[in-house]
Specification:
Layout (H helix, E strand, L loop, with lengths): L14 E3 L10 E6 L9 H14 L8 E5 L3 H13 L2 E7 L4 H9 L3 E5 L11 H11 L3 E3 L7 H17 L6 E5 L4 H13 L4 E7 L4 H7 L31 E5 L1 H15 L5 H12 L9 E6 L13 H6 L8 H6 L15 H11 L3 E6 L2 E7 H10 L18 E2 L5 H7 L6 E5 L5 E5 H9 L1
Parallel strand pairs: 2-10, 3-4, 3-6, 4-5, 7-8, 7-10, 8-9, 13-14
Antiparallel strand pairs: 1-2, 11-12, 14-15
Helix pairs in contact: 1-2, 1-5, 5-6, 8-9, 14-15
Bound molecules: pyridoxal-5'-phosphate.
Length: 451
């Protein structure tokens, strides 16, 4: 038994129980994992539906051009549908989106135009304006406009909602879902509330979007809007796909909390999901006090983690934004039992220095004169010198001095220290708040990174 084409694999995605992150919650928490769709996101559902409705309404004919503003996932769904049904695709997107998302769209035959993120929607450079302009210029083209095209929410009313109802055997009490165009949350909620009006629908938003304030006040307050790095959800206007009457609560999540939770979902539940899945579950965790025993919560996980490997799944990216707690020089010093720095004076003899190395089990000794760092002695350097001239043992340290170790700030991140320590330089120094020097060696850095 085979399928006629890839579009027939859209939908009927699995519902998977979360067992670790949510173990202290009184409720059963289930994830509707929509990265199992062929384009790796839930948006395949609405992309196909929007195309089918446009065809039925005569808005586009085979061989025509699909035009859309998309952060990647809708584009992927439309591109797959276009390949199977014989259309061209032109997508406009913003420069905030992952490069991977854009390359993936190109891989499935789409043309992608990247536009600036931080301009008003009605600015002629915005990705909305450019899409509209292209649609007016290219014959037999149609701008799908996922924001205001109600076929978007219809797809979820017809597929996502019924699947969730069936998979939970009608036991769902809460739907938790990130909200962008509003298609997923509204369409799914419309169906579920028809089945059981008591089901609570919690929409998850990001700080920097105006949706939450609009939900509470009916005001589209542009003061709420600021750039954010979360992808796929949150808006700076209210798309037509929303019917706020089927949503019971809006909850905002920070970029940092969403990203950290996405990483936990991968590590603790084995589900390698996108950024918004992290934000979705984080939103639920922020609301956990509202849950009680017997509740059955369904979180929608929109897309797959592979599109975010250069972002939330990249430690450097996370650290640059302050999303990961970074260990520093200071942390290494604080975790040590002995805090005293072993130093030598310029007049200390080489044999005394070797004794100190043996006694304290160290390889690097800074040389200090009148409180000033004047150089260093290292086991490696001494070995070379004693080997070629055994007499040197009686010499003073100042005669065999090596360059002083670099001095850095006390709170320098360990990652940065690892760049300063190399074959010519085995240690780094920093002064603490009291003005005392401390040392960090290659061994300390390796140990701290391995923890
Ligand atoms: C990854 C991701 N999460 C969440 C959403 C929000 O879904 P909706 O636009 O249906 O509100 C989208 C929509 O593009 C998305 O791509």
């Amino acid at each position: 038994m085979w399928l006629n084409n890839v579009l027939e694999t859209i939908g009927n995605t699995p519902m998977i129980q979360l067992n670790k992150i949510t173990k202290d919650l009184p409720a059963t928490v289930l994830a509707k994992v929509d990265y199992f769709n062929p384009g790796n996101s839930i948006k395949d559902r609405m992309a196909l539906k929007m195309l089918e409705v446009a065809e039925q309404e005569g808005k586009i004919k085979t061989g025509g051009t699909i035009i859309e503003c998309t952060s990647g996932n809708t584009g992927m769904g439309l591109a797959l549908a276009a390949v199977v049904k014989g259309y061209k695709c032109i997508f406009t997107t913003t420069d905030k989106q992952s490069k991977e998302k854009i390359d993936i769209l190109k891989a499935v035959g789409a043309e992608v135009i990247v536009c600036p993120t931080n301009v008003e929607p009605d600015d002629p450079r915005s990705y909305y304006s450019i899409a509209k302009k292209l649609a007016s210029e290219i014959p037999n083209s149609y701008h799908f406009n996922q924001y205001d095209n109600l076929a978007n929410r219809l797809a979820h009313y017809e597929t996502t909602g019924p699947e969730i109802w069936e998979q939970t055997g009608g036991r769902i009490t809460h739907l938790v879902c990130t909200a962008g165009t509003g298609g997923t949350v509204t369409g799914t909620a419309m169906y579920l509330k028809e089945k059981n009006p008591d089901i609570q629908v919690w929409a998850i938003d990001v700080y920097g979007s105006l949706l939450t304030k609009f939900f509470h006040t009916g005001e589209t307050d542009m003061n709420e809007v600021h750039p954010y790095v979360s992808e796929g959800f949150g808006e700076d206007f209210v798309p037509e796909n929303y019917d706020m009457s089927v949503i019971d609560h809006f909850e905002q999540v920070t970029d940092k909390d969403g990203a950290i939770m996405a990483r936990r979902i991968a590590k603790e539940e084995g589900l390698f999901c996108g950024y918004s899945a992290g934000s979705c579950l984080q939103g639920l965790m922020q609301l956990k006090s509202k849950l009680k025993g017997g509740d059955v919560v369904v979180c929608i996980f929109h897309d797959h983690g592979s599109r975010y490997v250069a972002k939330i799944y990249n430690d450097q990216w996370m650290m640059e934004r302050g999303f990961l707690d970074v260990k520093s020089f200071k942390d290494i010093v604080s975790s040590r039992q002995s805090k005293r720095l072993v130093t030598a004076a310029p007049t200390t003899t080489v044999s005394e220095t070797v004794e100190m190395m043996k006694k304290f089990d160290i390889e690097h000794i800074p040389v200090i004169s009148n409180g000033e760092l004047i150089g260093a002695i290292s086991e490696g350097g001494l070995f070379q010198k004693i080997f070629s001239n055994p007499e040197i043992k009686q010499a003073q340290v100042q005669e065999v001095l090596e360059p002083a170790f670099p001095v850095v700030a006390f709170d320098t991140p360990v990652e940065r220290l690892s760049h300063l320590i190399n074959k010519d330089n085995g240690a780094v120094l920093a002064k603490d708040e009291k003005g005392d020097y401390h040392i960090v060696t290659k061994y300390d850095v390796i140990q701290s990174l391995a923890k």
